[in-house]
Design goal:
This protein is α+β, with helices and mostly antiparallel strands. Helices cover about 45% and strands about 10% of the residues. The chain has a domain at about 450-480 and about 490-565: Up-down Bundle (Methane Monooxygenase Hydroxylase, Chain G, domain 1). The strands form five sheets. Strands 1-2-16-3-12-6-7 form a seven-stranded mixed β-sheet, sandwiched between helices. The chain has a three-stranded antiparallel β-sheet with strand order 13-14-15, with helices on one face. A two-stranded antiparallel ribbon has the order 4-5. β4 and β5 form a beta hairpin. α17 (about 505-510) packs antiparallel against α18. The radius of gyration is 27 Å and the shape is globular. Bound molecules: adenosine-5'-triphosphate and magnesium ion (MG).
Length: about 700
């Protein structure tokens, strides 16, 4: 559906806003629908369904200029189909983001949407879905899954939190109030580490999360488990203009006391490259942002303590975050004599070594050189400036990603059901809620958007499969006559991304060629997919290409795709970190990751205690600062037997790629959802909400703004 500025305002006045079930509208066309939504939205009614007796809604509003009639048509087809057959096919709720706090999540609503027998008597509500899932779980004693989908900023994370709150209310049990509170709290904690400001949402989830709440047969909560997917680790070292790094960094600077900042060798956030607003621009926080971040910092610390993190755990977390900040401040200079690089200012190097208890010389060596074993002989080669920058950033990303995985792992340890249940644990009923990064279409779309949008394509297919394909199959098997519904099947797009010759397979293949470039990659894409309606060759530059997604066309820029995909740490950096005197850091780089690259689900247990050896005070370091300059790496470099190559380090070409982890991660997630009974919440009305409510249009431009107003 196209929602444009030429919207006919006269239509608005015609709507009465009396219809919960949009299928009941006397005239059902685009304009009538928008009209009805508008009136209801203005009255604070943000939830809708489409076919009451079927609990089905299937309308979506997409990108401003890419919205097609197709989806409304799907809705109409379904309506016609089920008017005659009146069969239950699934639960779908649609929601419009209100961009303001509504008083519809109070005790009164919790009560009203509890054990609902006739849902048609109640206005649609997100609690309605939570209640249905809980009741069905109790009745069938089976795993339920709620898939929340929609574009970025549409309200998925908020819906997820509201549903968790309601499920906890529904248990109405004093059985383990502490545990229930912890389950609510961990969402806020994960947001601090996994959410960031983007152009579309000031609290955008940059990872996928599947929260599974585990119940006894009687419906009491026994525990919970968080599965994390696809953290956008590139954000740690780089983010687009107008965007920000992960929230936790800003919380730290606002919340840590002066002496704590000193302890982590931190001063002002303006001095840290990766916190800048865009390339070369320094970061800043307004007074109200500082106030908000300070409050959030305290909240995170309180949550961590409540959930069960030790003080030492918390110190360790901030130590690693500080190390990431200092590490990414290391810069390299080209050495004219040897073609290699040296570290410009060794102060951040010294700090990182102190924070992570690493041997400084070994770290410096690993940053400026790489080692490969060729024909049984170890060959050490100096990195050029680009390689050194990439290696440093790969380490910063790995530190952050592994820390994130470790936090999820700790959360799961602390929230797990009583292990005395033994094997029975796997048979317990549960409700899982999936909330992942929404579909994105920025002015510049890169590898990260390609991954996020491919994952959303899968989720859409999962939706189609349950809503259309499985039903058609059942009708067919039961010999019930039915009209084929002309829905947009995106199965071919799954092939474009994930097939044996799909974009990700081609990217992986190209990543293994030392001489490949981003431009040769785009050529490869083109040669395989030129005949597909889904692939668009762009003439603008040779690095851009377009994909006609289910949600509209997105133009991607392949600059940096190969490097982002290889993104592997060289072996000597891994070895260096493994030798850290902080056992947890050493473990982070020693434990075996799963095929999806996950640390949190690693089969190897984390056993180390978060012991932190004492280290020099920041003042002591600063006093010596001048003497660090350039000396050490210059001398290290001289000692290295150099075999200078400008090609990519060989160990990088043979390691598992980001794409490989991404594909396995997605497969793991879909496998988890495969056997569950699904519900769908589609928070797809952000654009509509923005169009209809003038006061929300500036919403996404200021960090934390809406939160401060809540
Ligand atoms: N039900 C709601 N009530 C009040 N505000 C809401 C509601 N839903 C969403 N919002 C507002 O919209 C913002 C964006 O919502 P949210 O972060 O849930 O989007 P999202 O779909 O998870 O986006 P992304 O894919 O980027 O993570 C929230 O920070 C909040 O301010
Ligand atoms: Mg989100």
């Amino acid at each position: 559906m196209r929602v444009t500025s030429e919207y006919d305002h006269s239509y608005r006045t015609a709507g009465k806003g009396e219809v919960d079930d949009l299928s009941k509208l006397e005239f059902l066309d685009e304009q009538a629908l928008i009209n009805e939504l508008y009136v209801r939205y203005k009255n604070g009614q943000i939830y809708f369904k489409f076919c009451e007796e079927l609990n089905l809604s299937l309308i979506q509003y997409r990108q401003k200029n890419d919205i097609k009639n197709r989806e409304i048509q799907e809705g109409l087809n379904i309506k016609n189909r089920f008017r005659s057959s009146s069969t239950y096919i699934g639960d779908v709720l649609i929601a419009v983001n209100p961009f303001k706090q509504l008083n519809i999540y109070e005790k009164e609503q919790h009560k009203a949407y509890s054990k609902v027998r006739f849902r048609s008597l109640l206005t649609p509500h997100v609690f309605w879905v939570a209640d249905a899932a809980y009741q069905r779980m109790l009745f069938h004693k089976a795993t339920q899954c709620i898939a929340v989908s929609g574009e970025s900023g549409a309200g998925k994370t908020e819906s997820t939190k509201l549903m968790i709150q309601h499920i906890i209310y529904l248990c109405k049990s004093d059985f383990d109030k502490e545990l229930q509170k912890k389950i609510v709290d961990v969402n806020t904690l994960l947001e601090a580490f996994g959410n960031a400001q983007t152009c579309m949402n000031s609290n955008s989830s940059r990872f996928g999360k599947f929260v599974q709440i585990i119940f006894s047969d009687e419906g009491q909560i026994l525990g919970a488990k968080v599965y994390d997917y696809l953290l956008e680790k590139s954000r740690v070292v780089n983010h687009g203009p107008g965007e920000r790094n992960y929230h936790i960094f800003y919380y730290m600077f606002s919340g840590l006391e002066k002496e704590e900042l000193d302890y982590y060798y931190l001063d002002s956030l303006e001095n840290f490259r990766i916190l800048g607003t865009s390339a070369g621009c320094k970061a800043y926080l307004t007074k109200s942002e500082i106030k908000y971040c300070k409050m959030m910092f305290q909240a995170q610390k309180d949550i961590m303590k409540r959930v069960g993190f030790l003080d030492e755990d918390i110190t360790l977390i901030f130590t690693i975050l500080a190390a990431v900040l200092h590490l990414t401040n290391i810069s390299f200079c080209q050495d004219e004599e040897t073609d290699g690089v040296y570290i410009d200012d060794e102060y951040p190097l010294e700090v990182v070594s102190n924070l992570l208890c690493l041997d400084q010389e070994i770290l410096a060596t690993a940053l400026i050189s790489s080692s490969n074993v060729t024909k049984g002989e170890k060959v050490v080669s100096l990195k050029n400036k680009d390689q050194a920058n990439d290696g440093r950033d790969a380490l910063a990303k790995a530190l952050y990603e592994r820390l994130f995985g470790w936090i999820v792992h700790q959360i799961n340890e602390l929230l797990q059901p009583n292990s005395a249940l033994g094997e029975k644990l796997d048979l317990l009923p549960s409700i899982g809620i999936l909330d992942m990064s929404g579909f994105e279409n920025f002015s510049l779309n890169s590898f990260e958007q390609l991954c996020i949008n491919a994952a959303n394509e899968h989720l859409q297919f999962y939706f189609n499969e349950h809503i259309f394909l499985q039903e058609e199959e059942e009708y067919f098997n039961e010999g019930i006559p039915f009209d084929i519904v002309d829905f947009q099947n995106n199965e071919d797009l799954i092939e474009v991304f994930m097939g044996p010759l799909g974009l990700f397979a081609l990217l992986d293949e190209e990543s293994k060629f030392p001489r490949a470039s981003d431009s040769s990659l785009v050529e490869k894409f083109y040669s395989h997919w030129k005949n597909s309606d889904r692939y668009v060759r762009s003439r603008a530059t040779d690095l851009t290409f377009g994909i006609n997604h289910y949600a509209g066309r997105v133009i991607y820029n392949a600059k940096g795709f190969l490097e982002k995909n290889r993104d592997n740490l060289s072996q000597n950096i891994i070895e260096c970190l493994k030798n850290s005197n902080i056992e947890v850091v050493s473990e982070l780089f020693s434990v075996e990751r799963t095929e999806s690259g996950s640390i949190s689900r690693s089969a190897t247990a984390f056993i180390a205690k978060p012991y932190l050896p004492s280290r020099p005070k920041s003042n002591d370091l600063r006093r010596q600062r001048d003497s660090f300059l350039q000396k050490r790496t210059k001398s290290i470099k001289k000692r290295i037997q150099t075999l200078k190559t400008n090609t990519i380090q060989k160990d990088k070409l043979n390691q598992v790629t980001v794409t490989c982890h991404f594909r396995n991660s997605l497969a793991e997630l879909l496998d988890k959802m495969k056997d569950a009974e699904p519900f769908f919440v589609r928070d797809n009305f952000k654009i509509l909400a923005e169009q209809l409510s003038l006061e929300t249009t500036e919403y996404s431009t200021k960090i934390f703004k809406q939160k401060q107003n809540l």
